[in-house]
Known about the structure:
Blueprint: E1 6-11, H1 19-32, E2 36-40, H2 43-49, E3 52-54, H3 57-60, H4 82-94, E4 99-104, H5 106-116, E5 122-126, H6 142-163, E6 166-171, H7 178-186, E7 191-193, H8 202-214, E8 220-225, H9 231-242, E9 246-250, H10 262-280, E10 286-291, E11 294-299, H11 300-304, H12 313-321
Parallel strand pairs: 1-2, 1-4, 4-5, 6-8, 6-9, 7-8
Antiparallel strand pairs: 2-3, 10-11
Bound molecules: 6-O-phosphono-beta-D-fructofuranose (F6P).
6-O-phosphono-beta-D-fructofuranose binds at residues 13-14, 75, 128-130, 172-174, 226, 256.
Amino acid sequence: MQVIKKIAVLTSGGDAPGMNSAIRAVVFSAAQFDMEVVGVLRGYDGLIDWETISLTLEDVRNINNQGGTMLFTSRSERFLQPEYRSQAADNLRKHHVDAVVAIGGDGTLRGAVQFQREGINIVCIPGTIDRDVACTEYTLGFDTAANTATEAIDRIRDSSVSHGRCSVVEVMGRKRGYIALWAGMATSADAIILPEKWDGDFDKITDAVKKHHTDDRNSYLIVVAEGVIDAPELAGMIQEKTGVESRVSVLGYIQRGGQPTAKDRMYGSLMGAYAIEILRQGRENRIVAIKNDILEDYDIAEAVDMNNNALDSFQYELSLRLSE
Ligand code: F6P
């Protein structure tokens, strides 16, 4: 079994609240086992260019409450090419790094699967607001993003009710509807449009908006996940077909920033410590996951092929019942 003496930690893909807690726990846990930690800046790009900082306990002591990632991030185009992955692996060997901890979403995991073929031991921690990594029930940042979206939508609703308008609010999620489902249910949205479930039935929406107006519930709130329908187009169509004044708000990057919730700080800490435990046990190429609130791990190549991330059907059915 290889004794790990030096590790590199990086964050990659979209930043997510809770990443800093994971970095902190990696550094603290590594110190307990006398492992040295270097922080790689700007994700996989930093591995290619060897842009690094040393990380001590003092550097990370008070970062739990900070949004974003102290190591910066990127969506590295170069890392998709074998010659750059090979350069990154050479850099790690040259600097005597025994293993990498990569914190990020689906793209980070896919990059890691390619990278292990260079003979590098890489352990991943799922961090993305989208909650779209199939092997785990939780990804760092989701709770903060869902809460931020909820707070923003509550405010939009106040204005919408005051004016008797229809509000269309677009939230993030890439190809997944988790943020839309949670923020939509939490704000009692009248309709929630999800990539997994959208059937293209615009008439159903315009009929419901009209019905609300005749019922005297004079505002209507639609939460739509990005990429399903063009939100401004939807608002325009509703106004044209129903005569109800309609407005659109695209929440955008507000959902990614801000102080992490207690849940993201806690899970970041747990996942960071667990990643070091995996390395300490001499295991290789794993991803940390959470199931029924218990930490576990999977082989990264197997995890990337998993396809069991369907939207919870009970949650979805309930969202329909609660919006009638
Ligand atoms: O990090 C996840 C995410 O915010 C997705 O919800 C969104 O589709 C995407 O990143 C936006 O990416 P970028 O920061 O590259 O614009």
